[in-house]
């Protein structure tokens, strides 16, 4: 039996003190130990991006990171976007521009886009498209996702 290591995950400003096996992924810890199921697990190989969360402000594929590596870091999941019952600008833009269909990829796209735009608000359109192409969607054809992110980017810049 593998020995468990006590860690504290700070997710959306709340501390979760848990004990994890060394090989436990951050995605599994967020979903199963913290009870936050908005982070989706798709390919489990870091390809699809459904599990993207922000770790210290950086988009991270949580299926590729061990939970122990996130000990003491600030983690933000899709559950942490809305504030006081009001959707984040990016969430509203996805609704307004029909940027979701089945919704499975949506949390990963939201976290990727928010993380990139908070870090680099004036990212070029070409670079933004390059970033978004790292996540996969099997339903939308991407056009409405791109429209939604562009609209939210303008709003996040205050335009």
Name the descriptors.
2 domains; five-stranded mixed sheet; single chain; 159 residues; 5 strands; Ubiquitin-like (UB roll); 33% helix; DNA polymerase, domain 1; alpha+beta; 5 helices
CATH-derived architecture of the largest domain: Roll
| CATH homologous superfamily assignment of the largest domain | Beta-grasp domain
Mean pLDDT, as a whole number?
Answer: 96
Strand content bin = 15-25%
CATH topology of the largest domain: Ubiquitin-like (UB roll)
Subunit arrangement of the protein: single chain
Q: Assign the CATH class of the largest domain.
A: Alpha Beta
Measured distance between first and last alpha carbons: 56 Å
- Structural class comes to alpha+beta
Q: Extract low-pLDDT stretches.
A: none
Overview of the molecule:
- The structure is a single chain.
- This protein is of the alpha+beta class and 159 residues long.
- The protein has two domains: 5-80, Roll (Ubiquitin-like (UB roll)), CATH 3.10.20; 89-156, Orthogonal Bundle (DNA polymerase, domain 1).
- It is 33% helix and 16% strand.
- The protein has five helices and five strands, in the order ββαβββαααα.
- The chain has a five-stranded mixed β-sheet, with helices on both faces.
- A hairpin with a 2-residue loop joins strand 1 and strand 2 (14-20).
- The longest helix has 14 residues, at 106-119.
- The mean pLDDT is 96.
């Amino acid at each position: 039996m593998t020995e468990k290591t006590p860690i504290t995950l700070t997710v959306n400003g709340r501390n979760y003190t848990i004990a994890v096996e060394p090989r436990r992924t951050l995605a599994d810890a967020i979903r199963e130990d913290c009870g936050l199921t908005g982070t989706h697990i798709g390919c489990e190989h870091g390809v699809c991006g459904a599990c993207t969360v922000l770790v210290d402000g950086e988009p991270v594929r949580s299926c590729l990171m061990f939970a122990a590596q996130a000990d003491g870091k600030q983690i933000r999941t899709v559950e942490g976007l809305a504030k006081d019952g009001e959707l984040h600008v990016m969430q509203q833009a996805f609704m307004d521009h029909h940027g979701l269909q089945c919704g499975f990829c949506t949390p990963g796209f939201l976290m990727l886009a928010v993380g990139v735009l908070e870090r680099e608000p004036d990212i070029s359109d070409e670079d933004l498209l390059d970033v978004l192409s790292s996540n996969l969607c099997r339903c939308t054809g991407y056009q409405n996702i791109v429209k939604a992110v562009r609209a939210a980017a303008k709003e996040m810049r205050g335009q």
